[in-house]
Amino acid sequence: MKVLVINAGSSSLKYQLFNMANNDVLAKGRVERIGMDSAILVHEPKDKEEIKEVSEILEHTTAIRKVLDKLVDKQQGVLVSIDEIDAVGHRVVHGGEAFSGSVIVDDSVKKEITRLIDLAPLHNPAALLGLSAVQTNMPNVPNVFTFDTAFHQTMPKSAYMYAIPTIFYTKHKVRRYGAHGTSHLYVGERTAEFLGRPIEELKIISCHIGNGASVTAIDGGKSVDTSMGMTPLEGLMMGTRSGDIDPAVVTYAMGKEDLTVSEANSMLNKHSGLLAISKISSDMREVTEAMEAGDQNAQLAFDMYIYRLRKYIGAYAAAMDGVDAIVFTAGVGENSVVVREAVCTKLNFLGVEFDSERNKTGRGFDKRISKDTSKVEVLVIPTNEEWMIARDTFELVSKK
Ligand code: AMP
User: Fold this and answer.
1) How far from 200 is each of 181, 217, 219, 223, CA to CA, in Å?
2) Whose CA is nearest to atom 23 of ligand 1?
3) Domain 198-385 has what CATH class?
4) Which residues are catalytic?
C-alpha cells in the first residue's frame, strides 16, 4: 500500500509518499507561498534529482495537482499512475475532545473539524483546504485525519482543567489540549523500543523542542500532562512565543500600550520568546552563536530557555512520581549539543549522569546521551510525525 501524507498550512503544504510494504519514503516535498504568483514547489524523489519550480499557485487544489503531477512525472516521478496511491493521511492541529485517535474522514468528521475552527482558527481551516484539494484531485481515495491533540486526551481532569469559573469549560471548551501529540507518542514508543522495555512500565519526559516547543509526561504510554495549553502559547519559552506568563500581564500591557486583542495575540505569539529577549533571532542556532560571541541579550535568552525547560522536567518528574527516561526531539532537541548539555548537567538531583562525549557524537539517529550507570536514561530520538500519520492511515484503511 502507498500512503500520501499531507501537512497543509494556510499558505503552504508539505508532503511525503510512503511505501508501507517496506516503510520507504518514495518522495517528499513542499509547496510554499500558495496564493501567490511566485509559489515554490520543491520535490525530492528518492534516488533522483530534486526539482524546484516557481509558478503561480493560487489555491491548495492546484498545489495538490502539481504535487501529483510531480509524483507521476516521467523523469522525476516515483509512480506510474496516481491510482497507485491507496490512501491519504492529513495532519490536523486540533481535534478538541472529540478525537482521541486518528479517524477515516466522513461527513460527520468534517463537520466536527469545522466546528473546532473556533479553537484553532489559524490551523484547522488549512487542514480542511488540504482535504478538499485531495478530494477534488482524487475523489475515490480514502482520507484519514491524525490530530496533534489526540494523544493528550488521556490527561486526567486535574491536569487539563484551568482554575477559572467552570462555565468557560462547559460553555466554551476552555481547557488544556496540548499539541505535538503525534511526535510525543512516536518518541514514547521509540524510547520503549530503544530501551527494550515495555512502555507500560516506563515514565518518560518527552521534550519536543523546535520552533514551537512542548514537554509531555508519558506515564505507562499515556500522556498525563503536557506544557502546551488550550493553544500552543502556554508552557516553554519558544522561538517567538512567550510560553508561561502571569495572565495579568496581558491585560496590563494591553491597557498601557493600547493594544487590541489581535495585537496582544501577535505580541505573545510572534514577537516574544527567544526573538524578544535575544533581540537577534528566533532561531536557536543564531542565538547560540551570538551568545558564544559574548552577546549579553543572547546569553539571557539562552539562560531563560534552559531554566524553564529544566523547571518543566522537574515538575513532570514530580507529576509522575519519578522518571525513567528524558528524551530530546525536534529541531533544537535533535541538533543542539549545547542546549542538551546545559539542561542535563543540572539534573543531578533526579539521578541523571550526563555523558558529554556521547552528546557530541553524530546526529540523525536514536542515541543515548547519559552514562551507562545513570539512574535516568537520557536519549535523543529524531521525531517522525509523518511516519506516524502514514502508519495510522495504513492501519485504519486496511481494516475498512
Ligand atoms: P523544528 O520546528 O522542529 O523544525 O525546529 C526548527 C528549529 O530548530 C530552528 O528554528 C532552530 O532554532 C533549531 N535548530 C535546528 N538546528 C539547530 C542546531 N544545530 N542548533 C540549534 N538549534 C537548531
Assistant:
1) 18, 13, 7, 12
2) 332
3) alpha beta
4) 148
